[in-house]
Amino acid sequence: MIPFPLEPTILKRPEIPPLPKTMPIVHKKPLGPRENADWDLDPMTHTIEEEDEMLDGLSWIDNDTDVGSKRVSSNDTISEPPTIHSGRNSATSSTAEIPLILDHSCIGPDGMPRVDELHLSESVPILLDIHAAKKERPPPPPDPFLLELQKKENAGLHALCEHLADVPEALLDPIQFFEKRLWALVGCQWLTFGKQLQSPAHDTLLHARPEDGRKVLHLHGPVADGWVLAAKYPNATFYSVSSEDVEYPEDLYSMPSNHHHIYTPSVSSPIPFPDDYFDVVVTRTLSSVVKSSQLESVLRESLRILRPGGWLELHTIDPTLTRAGNITKHWIESRVLAPMENDFFSSKPSDRILHLMQDLGYHKVKNARIALPTFPISRPLSPGGGAGGELDAQNVMVYLGRHFYEELYGQFLRAGHIGAGSPSWWWDSMAVRQECQRENTCFGLTISFGRKTR
């Protein structure tokens, strides 16, 4: 096995044309991570064989380990964010970039998951019979919720900024939170090349036929997440399992017809489905809803209900920050980490989850880490008047990081709050702001996935 590099290599990805079903480009050049980030993949069209070494844009760390090999830690796989004044490929300037970084991919001897090896993809047609297609019935009309979602996707970066702007999550009622969460998921989709799922299951579900019977479990997350997944992959059946009451704006949106809610008494309850039932299990909230001692049982249950060839995909933002200064560290340790540890939650959930996936027997375990800036970096306006769009791209990433961070860890901040009024966040402190801007402090978003082989 190729050893993991201590200093990840940062390679540049040139601009690529926008993908289908993503936000329309309203500027002369695309904005955002596609051109302002450090990518390692060539945007040209690839053959099936070439795609075996690629997973659409993100740079993945291969975590399959042999006896005696070095474990992968999130501290090892995330490199220091470049400053906003370094690099290339800016939408408005040849000398500027947004501090979004992706780690170098360490490919093991077996390489990335091959398309022709995946049980999930065996029934996906590569070539369509034109004559047979003509005889098929016309596709059903688009789901009403999908149409509303597409309006948000087409609204542009500035609209994303306006809807994600800092309004404390604690002040939002469930309906307002549902709406804001939809905008956050649209922003996250923009960040990850128009994909809601990053594992190889994305292509399987995207090309699924109704008769394939694909099933996906959305585990312990906001109801909006399950709806968006169901809308983006309409030929699969989705089940959202939660121990909380479900509230959504019935007068504004209709639930996707392929989505179902399942209630469980607690997050530690057995998942109420038989063995080998789901093609995909996805969750974005384990770090704050499942205690450290319960993580193993939840991941083991997920492995049980996955079909052979199925995928588990997890998104995690750690409560600790990358390149945090002393003021920021002290703020987080005293107001967030202390209440978390008192309630027996992991302070390093991305590492804990990664290690458990390896120990429990998930195969092809991979992870990518994305650094999202905690504050927009101010700079002089670029000639040509394009800096507004560039600033919108920065702010979208800042607001995304804050939204996911606050949604995950707001309960611990409120639990440890002493005094009158609502607690404030570290980004409201001028001292923390100045330190984070000086140190280029970032949120660490980790996307991990692993496969069940038998």
Number of separate strands: 8
The CATH H-level homologous superfamily:
Vaccinia Virus protein VP39
Topology as a string of helices (H) and strands (E): HHEHHHHHHEHEEEHHEHHEHHE
Widest beta sheet: strand line-up: 1-7-8-6-5-2-3-4
Find the structural class using helix and strand composition.
alpha/beta
- How big is the Rg? 21 Å
Q: What's the number of domains?
A: 1
Biggest sheet: strands, sense, closure? 8 strands, mixed
Mean pLDDT: 75
CATH architecture: 3-Layer(aba) Sandwich
| Proportion of residues in β-strands | 5-15%
* Uncertain segments: 1-54, 65-130
Q: Which percent range fits the helix content?
A: 25-40%
CATH class: Alpha Beta
Name the shape in a single word. Answer: globular
Would you give the CATH topology? Rossmann fold
CA-to-CA gap between the ends? 23 Å
Question: Number of helical runs?
Answer: 15
GO molecular function: S-adenosylmethionine-dependent methyltransferase activity
Domain Methyltransferase type: 267-312
InterPro entries: Methyltransf_11 (IPR013216), SAM-dependent_MTases_sf (IPR029063)
Biased composition (Polar residues): 71-92
Brief overview:
The chain is an alpha/beta fold and 454 residues long.
General description of the model:
The structure is a single chain. By secondary structure, this protein is of the alpha/beta class. The chain has a single domain (33-125, 145-451), classed as Vaccinia Virus protein VP39 (Rossmann fold, 3-Layer(aba) Sandwich). 34% of the residues lie in helices and 13% in strands. The chain has 15 helices and eight strands. It has helices spanning 33-36, 48-51, 74-77, 130-135, 144-153, 157-164, 174-191, 201-206, 223-232, 286-289, 292-305, 326-342, 349-360, 387-415, 430-439; strands at 61-62, 215-219, 237-242, 259-263, 278-283, 306-317, 363-373, 442-451. Strands 1-7-8-6-5-2-3-4 form an eight-stranded mixed β-sheet, sandwiched between helices. Helix 9 (223-232) links the parallel strand 2 and strand 3. Helix 6 (157-164) packs parallel to helix 14 (387-415) and helix 7 (174-191) packs across helix 14. It is globular, with a radius of gyration of 21 Å. The model is unreliable at 1-54 and 65-130 (pLDDT under 50). It holds the Pfam family Methyltransf_11. Residues 71-92 have a biased composition (Polar residues). InterPro entries: Methyltransf_11, SAM-dependent_MTases_sf. Residues 68-92 are annotated as: Disordered.
